[in-house]
Amino acid sequence: MQGMMPPVAVSLGALWLPILLSAVFVFVGSSVIWMFFKWHDGDWKQGGLEGDLQEALRKVGVTTGQYLFPYMDMKATDKAAAKKTWMERYAKGPVGVIHAGTPGTMSMGKMLGQVFVLYLVVSFFSAYVAAHALAQGAPYLKVFQVVGATSFVAYGMGSFMDSIWFSKSWRSTWLTVLDALIYCGLTAGTFGWLWPR
Fold it and tell me: Angle 7-9-12 (CA atoms, 0-180°, nearest 5)?
């Protein structure tokens, strides 16, 4: 129609404040979830043999990294024998994954810094998608929809792969999805509030 102005694109630079603030809000929200709601406390089990297990892992030389057991040696010269051994061990159990960290003093400051950077990255890519999908002056609910969907995928979908392939409990994955809904609500709400008008 004649006389109508074309939509004005939004630059990523114009979204620096919602990127930063949404990361801050998610950081605070995640801290509240982990410190006060405590619904993740049941995600971890104590095997009852913690000292013995640590000693056994030290004896076999486990260092920082990821370990899958039983392990299928894909480079074995006798693949049939390796597969048979793996199948027997898998059937007998237990099966699982070990994530071995670096021994020493735990650095909460470093971990909190890393998780805040992750929240910034998710907010940045949510802004990137929204800036290409929405124009200046987009309605709050439309911004909420686009940013919410993008950030939800970032925060919530990775855990499913860990449950499907690597024995992560489904309870833990669904709680991570609940976290993701809260985080995406905080992110989307911030962008909707501060979207350029």
Answer: 160
Question: Which pLDDT does position 180 carry in this prediction?
Answer: 97
Q: Give the list of residues 6+ apart from residue 80 with CB closer than 8 angstroms, or none.
A: none
Q: Does 81 share its domain with 173? A: no
pLDDT band at 177 (very low <50, low <70, confident <90, very high): very high
Token output for 33: 């979830």
Same domain? For 114 and 85 the reply is no
Structural domain that includes position 92: 65-100
End-to-end CA distance of the chain: 22
Quick check: 96 pLDDT over 60? yes
Same domain, yes or no, for 72 and 153?
no
Give the tens place of pLDDT for each residue, 112-126: 999 999 999 999 999
Is residue 50 situated within a structural domain?
no
Is 184 in contact with 151 (CB distance < 8 Å)? yes
Residues 96 and 181 in one domain: no
Query: Buried b / exposed e across 50-59, counting CB within 10 Å, b at 16+?
Result: eeeeeeeeee
Instruction: Tally the domains of the chain.
Output: 2
Q: What is the pLDDT of residues 13-58, one digit of tens each?
A: 999 999 999 999 999 999 999 999 888 888 887 766 777 888 888 8
